[in-house]
Amino acid sequence: MDSSSPKEQYVTEVTDNYETTCWGCGLSVLIPSCASVFKCGWCGAITDQNTQKRDQKGFRWRVLRDRCFVSVVIIFMLFVIFGGVWAIYPVLFSISLLLGSFHSIITAILSIATISSFSLAAFRCAGTPPNILWGSYPTVGKGDLENYTFCHYCLKPKSPRAHHCRSCRKCILDMDHHCPFIGNCVGAANHRNFIAFLISAVLSTIYVSIMSAYAGLHIWPTLTYSIKGLNGITSVDLAWRVINEILIAFLRSALLLSSRGLVLAYLFIASVSLQIGLSVLLWQQLSYIYQGKTYLSHLTSQAGNEEEKKDCQNLVRFFGFQYSVTRFLPTFRVTRKRHVK
């Protein structure tokens, strides 16, 4: 039995609460002292008292790292384009003028697509949250800041779909991840450009590997002869003997390789290596889009055990198709004749 008077109980309840101000609308809020996170009942803004601003001493190092990665990627793409033209196209034009012209058009299309998509993904703003009114009760309506939080780095509201990137030093809308190879975040404004860059890069590396191998077989006759000599072998160790013959033929011809042969060998090895890495990254990105998520939201959903809503319409909406595919299919109408007696 509690022997304290009602007045003492009221004083105890008041001292257990403390008064603070909502950053979203500026109204005074009385909350329990044990509650460090609260949501305003008027504007819907969420306040976390435990959040503290961290220092960003490594910002200059991140900027320098990103610029170095972007420079290396640009130099590599230019080397692949001009090195491939110098090493492959003399062989193609020596075979046929029509063949060389056809592959020149393909090279121009893939080069323009890859460089333009990379430039848009790297040098375009990844997407910033919308600017809204906040901090004053008359201007902030009821529920205008629903589930908004306050960014202690940018010192302004952060929408529920935004995330602060300490490398870019700003909040990014629908942030997927910060990619150092493009020196930029992947967000709402450049996510499609990033996917387009991955697709064009995968197609380009496949094309470069095929054409470098095709040109190499024409300038390395010993390698061609060694491969043809294995046609009649049907034993179990066929694969192992093929690898041995290719390595032996390559080592024999390596001593007599010209500068063109070295460039072709480098292009083949580099393009095959990039195919594997870019294909895995592209598949991962498309799987997240299919699930209607980003990489960061995928991590948070795993922590919260949220249900996945997988749908092909997520891919359709991501790539900007407003209508369903069935809209463009022909429709057939069956007309019924009325029999008049």
In short:
The protein has 341 residues and is mainly alpha-helical.
Explained architecture:
The chain has 341 residues and is mostly helical. The protein has helices at residues 6-16, 59-95, 97-123, 191-219, 221-228, 238-254, 259-290, 295-304, 312-318, and strands at 17-21, 28-32, 37-39, 46-48, 149-151, 156-158, 162-165, 170-173, 177-179, 184-186. Strands 1-2 form a two-stranded antiparallel ribbon. Strands 3-4 form a two-stranded antiparallel ribbon. The protein is elongated and about 85 Å long. It starts with 5 loop residues before the first helix and ends in a 23-residue tail after the last helix. The relative contact order is 0.09.
**What is the percent of helical residues?**
40-55%
Give the structural class.
mainly alpha
Biggest sheet, in brief?
Answer: 2 strands, antiparallel
Which series of helices and strands comes N to C? Answer: HEEEEHHEEEEEEHHHHHH
Estimate the mean pLDDT confidence: 79
Dominant shape: elongated
Q: What proportion strand?
A: 5-15%
> In which order are the strands of the major sheet placed?
1-2
Q: Please tally the β strands and state the result.
A: 10
Low-pLDDT parts are: 1-14, 325-329, 331-337
Instruction: Give the distance, in angstroms, between the N- and C-terminal Cα atoms.
Output: 94 Å
Helical stretch tally: 9
Radius of gyration: 31 Å
